[in-house]
Amino acid sequence: MTLRAHILGAAAGGGLPQWNCGCENCNLARNGKIPSQTQSSLAVSANGNDWAILNASPDIRQQLAQTACLHPSNLRTLPLCSVLVTNGDIDHVAGLLTLREMQPFSLFATGAIHDVLSNNTIFDALNASVVDRQTIATGQSFDLAPGLSATLFPVPGKVPLYLEGDEVQTDLIGDQTVGVQLTAGETTAYYIPGCAVLNDELRTRLHGADAVFFDGTLWRDDEMVRAGLGQKTGKRMGHMSMSGPDGTLAAFSNLNIGQKIFVHMNNTNPVLRPNSSEKTEAEAAGWIIGQDGMEIVL
Ligand code: MLT
Ligand code: MN
Ligand code: ZN
Question: What three-state secondary structure class fits 129?
Fold first, then answer.
């Protein structure tokens, strides 16, 4: 059994370029000097014919148009069997509204994430007679697509920005932010597009995996502050950053993982510039910088 993963969108919320951003990377992308990237989504398949989409990005219409393996094979016959969302963030759920045209598929999420969707009645546009919303408890294995099973597990994170109260815990462990274990035959891969900290439980879980697609939001925690784009640090957004002693490169350095691929990169991240020293440093540490359209076959 082969596990195929197709990166539909390698960028974090906002994409590259982000509509209102004049940072160095966004200007380079706007001018065609570096590749643009759409927002956070991964398509996976065990047989190359039936696909699941992990996170429905606001760019899903463009992503589907650009991805031949997801095109209709007949009038309304699609190779898409299911959609899974890993949190309630806008970059992961807004694309569900695009998938509303009476198209049957299963929609997998935890109870907490389904509650976010059902409390927003605009998502009723996904007609319940065709879209089967299935609540998946963490730790419970389920069939995501033919030959492809999945298990959700808690990842430190926070509630979506639009649900934040006065006090925000950024490393909450529950079922509001989850990672996905994917298993096809003997092959195991993980998808974790948002992670506040790599705790011991996660380290143990990921050790020995064939591939890990991981949160690459920022290179350094204060990157957006230094770029003059506001006061938000990576930590405040519930994301660990790539560099530094408690960064992702260091945290993964002793783990035995076949392929480590960064996804969910914010448009300010210097690794998105093909010639940057930061990209070279990440690659030297064994990381692949995810790109729209990249296919990883395991
Ligand atoms: C995040 O990953 O931190 C969120 O997508 C941010 C947002 O919703 O804008
Ligand atoms: Mn995001
Ligand atoms: Zn920017």
Answer: coil
For residue 61, give Cα distances in angstroms to 4, 8, 89, 142, 270.
21, 11, 18, 27, 27
Kindly give the distance from the C-alpha atom of residue 268 to the centroid of ligand 1, in angstroms, as a whole number: 14
- Long-range contacts of residues 253-259, Cβ cutoff 8 Å, at least 24 apart: 253/285, 255/203, 255/206, 255/207, 256/207, 256/208, 257/206, 257/207, 257/208, 257/209, 257/210, 257/211, 257/212, 258/209, 258/210, 258/211, 258/298, 259/210, 259/211, 259/212, 259/288, 259/296, 259/298
Q: Where are the beta strands (DSSP E) in the chain?
A: 4-9, 41-45, 51-54, 80-84, 105-109, 131-135, 141-145, 148-154, 178-184, 187-192, 211-215, 259-263, 287-289, 295-297
Q: What is the CATH number of domain 4-290?
A: 3.60.15.10
Q: Indicate which atom in ligand 1 lies nearest the CA of residue 264.
A: 2
* Domain spans in the chain, listed from the N-terminal domain onward: 4-290
SS3 208: coil
Q: What is the pLDDT of residues 179-227, one digit of tens each?
A: 999 999 999 999 999 999 999 999 999 999 999 999 999 999 999 999 9
pLDDT tens per residue, range 236-283: 999 999 999 999 999 999 999 999 999 999 999 999 999 999 999 999
Q: Are 114 and 130 in contact (CB under 8 A)?
A: no
Pocket of ligand 1 (CB under 6 A): 12-13, 89-91, 161, 194, 237-238
Q: Which of 86, 89, 178, 229 to mutate to test the pocket of ligand 1 (most atoms within 8 A of CB)?
A: 89
